[in-house]
Amino acid sequence: QAVADKIAAGEVAERPSAVVKELVENAIDAGADRIQVEIRKGGVEYIRVADNGCGIPAGQVETAFLRHATSKLSQIDDLYRISTMGFRGEALASICAVAEVEVITKTPEEEEGVYLRLKHGISEEKSEIACGTGTSMMVENLFANVPARMKFLKKDSTEAGYVADVLGRIALSRPKIAFSYTCDGKEIFTTTGDGKLASVILKIYGLDHAKALLPVDYTESGIHISGVVGKPELARGNRTRQTLFVNGRYVKNHVIAKVVEEAFRNNMMVGKFPFFVISVDLPAELVDVNVHPAKTEVKFANEKQLYDIAYHAVRNAIGAGEK
Ligand code: ADP
Ligand code: MG
């Protein structure tokens, strides 16, 4: 049985922000250090993700759009040692099935780049093109051929907000990559790629590290907890400013959010939720990122231990801030 068949396939291209997420993760996997994202009309009309990564070899451009044509996964074992963001080989196939896609790509070894246009999964035009190294993916008229999906989308400004949210979190997870996000011709944010989490937080949330944030940095039993928590006065009535990464991947884990909140219990009003951007780095065997097809839910092997360590990490940060 093929490895790909063992992977539970989920719907990838659920809404514009999901498409952006997949395209940006591909750009990260390609080693890019500059990623530009542009959308129009909530991403339904137009999405463009341009990177300066390794490019796709001319002979492989069409195969990249076939299901399970991933170049990143060879054995089922690899699933538990994933270092790349994508590993199912279905993002491009799913996206191009429900949109018109154009790609311009070039590897450093090639003189000329490739231009390919596909509509609803079928390749319509291919030619050589002069371009720099890297890849640009343009996705137009998303879901035009799936009216049911179209109906389920929210208004453009809401969808654009989801894109900003997804991209902001990816930018927080990759301070060494310079991201830019433009929506309907307006620049929403750019990050510098200087490698500092504080710089990204300043660009995305406008929060000054020295004034507003407490650094978290704690290691126990091979589990490293790092990042920042906001001072109690930054707390809000909702959890939209809470971000968790596990081994570099944005995930949701309500228990960890609760643990951080618990660490703030005596410093914060009831009903207020702390700001945080926290990374948990731990041996791959202790985490299963494959529980959910959208890859945002995680399960841990030794949950109790991890939660204790996270609690200590945040208590230390708060304690240091009080001194
Ligand atoms: P996966 O990321 O799971 O491998 P995708 O469908 O997202 O599957 O992408 C298919 C393949 O296309 C990737 O494995 C990669 O080889 C290639 N690819 C896609 N996007 C890029 C990019 N921006 N730069 C270089 N290669 C890319
Ligand atoms: Mg991918």
From TrEMBL:
Residues 201-319 form the DNA mismatch repair protein S5 domain. It comes from the Bacteria. Belongs to the DNA mismatch repair MutL/HexB family. This protein is involved in the repair of mismatches in DNA. It is required for dam-dependent methyl-directed DNA mismatch repair. May act as a 'molecular matchmaker', a protein that promotes the formation of a stable complex between two or more DNA-binding proteins in an ATP-dependent manner without itself being part of a final effector complex. This is DNA mismatch repair protein MutL. The lineage of its organism: Bacteria, Bacillati, Bacillota, Clostridia, Eubacteriales.
